[in-house]
Design brief:
This protein is an alpha/beta fold. 33% of the residues lie in helices and 29% in strands.
Amino acid sequence: MSNAPVTYDVAVVGGGPAGLSAAIALAQAGSNTLLIARRTPYADNRTTALLGGSIDFLTSLGVWERCRDQAAPLVEMRLVDDTARLIRAPEVCFSAGEIGLEAFGYNIENRVLVAALEQRATEIAGLMRLDDEAETVLSNDAEVAILTTHGASLSARLVVGADGRHSLCREAAGIAVAKRELNQAALTFNIAHARPHRNASTEFHTSHGPCVFVPLPGNRCSIVWVTSPREAERLLALTDSELSEAAERQSHSIFGSVRVEAGRHVFPLAIERPKQFAHERIVLVGEAAHVIPPIGAQGLNLGLRDASDIADLVGEAVLAGKDPGASEVLQRYDFARRADVLSRTFVIDVANRSLLSDFLPMQSLRAAGLHLIGSIGPLRRLAMREGLAPSWHAFRARPRTPTGRSAGRSG
């Protein structure tokens, strides 16, 4: 690319799953889109449980068909109180069949999902790719100017900041962030095990946080073990055989013998929320827009709803011949994302606080609440549906082209 400024309808900064999804959806919606992101191997072995409409959205992008064979369906979800406290909640089991679904969603390794997104992104004529990083982002009334680390100069009428929790785009928009450290950390790793998981995700609630065993294809599971930072570091330092024994104990041997696979990660937990989700021709998606604990599998699912909503709004603007970065579009995006993000963050925060609390009345309320959910059918079904996605939010069925026809999969 030359140094002469080039103007796009939309520039997406960041090439994680949320950024790639947003870029594909925006291009399919009819906008002239540029993706600014390095092409780097995704070596992380972490996984994501894609719930509800996330699968529909990825299907509409022509992505899901490329990776579904490497994902495991989540047919049941079990919550087990493993706190050993005086007041304990009963075990609760959620079954997808009870709300007419074959599965709540699918668990997939992030590297597999990213590879499918990368492959699809190369096929779309309206999506350009710049293998680079944004170095400066400057917004004005008419456009956003971007200078990359390799010296490319470009501009866009709208910038989608998908550049993570330390977002340059968010800083350029002047959006402040409210942040709260949780004094918890998550250890993530994968295991192979002797007994079948039967496509059931099992979440053990401990006094330091949940430890979740999520099915992968075959006799394998991914584990997200939330605990104190000190304990997480201790577990991280164990040998493979020692960690295998620890995981088997934590699972109460329901999977039989356990063998830890290569690759493990620890990251501190926090809740981060920007004061706005859009400002000065910049909108935020993914972790630039929300950082929440890995509880309830909400993180990337929220990010995909970010991508879906901004593509919807930009598609409408392009169809009408309007400016995709106009204040009206930004205001509608902020309104659309605010209730979703705040409600998910609130529920996860309350659930986490109630689990960690040593206050007996709080423990009693938590146990009573789970008892009601487990024993009252309509309440349990409502909890399942709302856990997949807010009832008032719907993913779009198929991205639209400027002519109003459904977008084809070849781009």
